[in-house]
Amino acid sequence: MEFFNKTGKVALGSRLRMLTEKITEDAAKIYQLYNIDMQPKWFPVFYVLSVGEEKTITAIAKEIGHSHPSVSKIIGEMAKKGLVVEKKDKTDGRRNIVSLTKKGLDITFKIQDQLTDVNTAIEAISAQTTHDLWKAMEEWEYLLEQQSLLSRVVEAHKKREAGKVTIVDYQPKYKAAFKALNEEWISRWFKLEAADHKSLDHPEENILKKKGHIFVALYNDEPVGVCALIKMDDPDYDYELAKMAVSPKAQGKSIGFLLGQAIIAKAISLGARNIYLESNTILKPAISLYNKLGFKKMAGRATPYERCNIQMELILPA
Amino acid sequence: MEFFNKTGKVALGSRLRMLTEKITEDAAKIYQLYNIDMQPKWFPVFYVLSVGEEKTITAIAKEIGHSHPSVSKIIGEMAKKGLVVEKKDKTDGRRNIVSLTKKGLDITFKIQDQLTDVNTAIEAISAQTTHDLWKAMEEWEYLLEQQSLLSRVVEAHKKREAGKVTIVDYQPKYKAAFKALNEEWISRWFKLEAADHKSLDHPEENILKKKGHIFVALYNDEPVGVCALIKMDDPDYDYELAKMAVSPKAQGKSIGFLLGQAIIAKAISLGARNIYLESNTILKPAISLYNKLGFKKMAGRATPYERCNIQMELILPA
DNA sequence: TATATTTGCGTAACTGATTACGTAATTTAT
DNA sequence: ATAAATTACGTAATCAGTTACGCAAATATA
For residues B260 and B294, what is the distance between their CA atoms, to the nearest angstrom? Predict the structure, then answer.
């Protein structure tokens, strides 16, 4: 299909479906050719029964990777043709135990030649290819089991969006945004406290002039996230990560992570030994972000914020 | 799926279907994620319209490799969502000309990011595989277009059956079979002639004692084909291939071909310059077999058989 | 010019799978 | 011992495609 060279790999699903169809189409004709009264779709069920004697519907379904209604239907069809018999389990009345009949068993022998020839034909095709379809499928199955395509796409999306985000130093024009972004999330979860007003209304005086730093995340030149690195007045702790706020509209762009990284890099360049922070455990995504950045939960320490119920620290390399 | 390691490649179709399903399943969720009101199955149709402007239903179907009813249905659904408009062709009242609406066109832009991300994700998976699924599929498509799986299986079958056939020298116990096999086909097409009775009733006297040879093809120790190499009394021709007969029950095992090869090998070992034969053009499979063996049509020569209307010869290497 | 064939496309029925749901039997928890 | 949860499995509806069929328009042929 020349079409797929134009669309690119996004049409992988469509292309797979077509190849599948082309191959399955011939399967029915092959059974006919060998005069075996069986439908291709029965094959997986037939196979497990021929190998393993008696099985229940769900056991078969699990083994061949179909849904149980699918197996149920197939067994019904095969029973009608006299290839299998169903019988109720005496000790467990729910179970329907299926096994091949004499006629079904006969087919297992009759079908051997066909299987040999099909295998020969497929191997012959494989021998003519430079890329091994069978092994490629096995690899894809494995990789998709590890992480679904969906989640990989989400990851790609996030990475691309993060690339559009720039982290810049605070400037007076971001004063309003600094306040608004913080008020937005604080008021959603808690009540604004006195200490909040102090730093949010006057960041220059209360953070920057006290040897602190503020970073702003820009997306399309819009400020969508902020975070402060505040100099602490404590012999054991050098800096505090605080006032981290990201607009809900700009989620999925790793903005919190980028701001955190910038803060950490800054602290290192300032020769800090550690970074301290305060948060609340109901803020699950925040806590997991701090963990991802390397912060660890630590023992209690005095704080002016009522909403704080967890404290974390990050030990920086010397 | 461990299951497929047990069944072997005969379950290629099933395995393909499952992989297809797994991938398609996520596709729908991906559209949702990007907030695009479109179904994955619309994509091929959408794609060709976004590239090529107006198209008729069948033109789209041909381009994307679907059946036309499928496209017809998809266009109906897309039209309901306002993504496309249909209009009758003025010069050809049968045609239904389809094009994207403004809304549909908007999606082409909106969808770009999604396509980029999906492509990134798929490329990332490909990078982790050692066998390239995409290229492998392309190779399979190409090879299946050249020769279908069905016909390759038929070929494998034939080859395997031919392996069970043995060609042996004539023995008195095959006298009846020699006669019966020949009478069977001759009487189906023609009337037995006087010359037939002579050689069929007394092959020893009329063929073997006159420096001729007879080969018998055995399948399960049953004689299912015969062929004679008869010494000719002609300065220009050394031997005649004649009395070739194969049981209809033993077709598809290349028996004629194997007998022919044996005859030719014998003639060469006897130092013959050529082999002559007589046949009739209504016997299409026979003529094509002779061609395959290397015989060429030649100019007329006297013959005792009424049914002969074509004469062929094979020049042997010196 | 009349008739036969081909073409475009819609509708209907089928296919091989799925998910959703209901019911009965069994197992677990209180 | 009873209630709640789980399990086995069948039926119904759905899905994304197919083939079969029929009608109308256009084209080819006699």
Answer: 10
Q: Which of B1, B6, B10 to mutate to test the interface with A (most CBs of A within 10 A)?
A: B10
Interface touch A137/B133, C-beta < 8 Å: yes
pLDDT digits (tens, 9 = 90+) for A152-174: 999 898 888 888 899 999 999 99
Judged by DSSP in three states, A315 sits in strand
Q: Strand D within 7 Å of which CB atoms in A 50-69?
A: 56-59, 68-69
Phi (first) and psi of residue A253, to 5 degrees: -120, 15
Helix (H, G, I), strand (E, B) or coil at A39: coil
> CA A239 to CA A232: how far, in whole Å?
5
**Contact in structure between A47 and B7 (CB atoms under 8 Å):** yes
pLDDT at B4: 87
pTM for this prediction: 0.73
Asked if the C-beta of B122 comes within 8 angstroms of chain A's C-beta atoms, the answer is yes
- Tell me the pLDDT band of A1, cut-offs 50, 70 and 90: low
| Half-sphere exposure of residue A34: CA atoms within 13 angstroms, side-chain side | 29
The mean predicted confidence, pLDDT, of chain A is: 90
- The pLDDT of A81-87, averaged and rounded, is 89
Residues 6+ apart with CB under 8 A from B52: none
CB B271 within 8 A of CB B258: no
Residue nearest to nucleotide D12 (CA to C1'): A69
Residues of chain B with pLDDT under 50: none
Pair A46, A83: CB distance under 8 Å: yes
> Is the pLDDT at A196 greater than 90, yes or no?
no
Q: How far is A243 from chain B (nearest CA, A)?
A: 30
* A122 to B64: CB separation less than 8 angstroms, yes or no: no
pLDDT for A146 beyond 70:
yes
Q: Which amino acid is at A49?
A: L
Q: For residue B70, say whether its CB is under 7 Å from any atom of strand C.
A: no
CB pairs under 8 A between A and B: 235
Q: What are phi and psi of A304, to 5 degrees?
A: -80, -5
Question: What is the 3 state secondary structure string of chain B?
Answer: CCHHHHHCHHHHHHHHHHHHHHHHHHHHHHHHHCCCCCCHHHHHHHHHHHHHCCEEHHHHHHHHCCCHHHHHHHHHHHHHCCCEEEEECCCCCCCEEEEECHHHHHHHHHCHHHHHHHHHHHHHHHHHCCCCHHHHHHHHHHHHHHCCHHHHHHHHHHHHHHHCEEEEECCHHHHHHHHHHHHHHHHHHCCCCHHHHHHHHCHHHHHHCCCCEEEEEEECCEEEEEEEEEECCCCCCCEEEEEEEECHHHCCCCHHHHHHHHHHHHHHHCCCCEEEEEECCCCHHHHHHHHHHCCEECCCCCCCCCCCCEEEEEECCC
Q: For residues B149 and A28, what is the distance between their CA atoms, to the nearest angstrom?
A: 11
Do residues B21 and A65 make contact, with C-beta atoms less than 8 angstroms apart?
Answer: no
Report the pLDDT value the prediction gives residue B198, as an integer from 0 to 100.
85
Task: Calculate what percentage of chain A has a pLDDT beyond 70.
Answer: 100
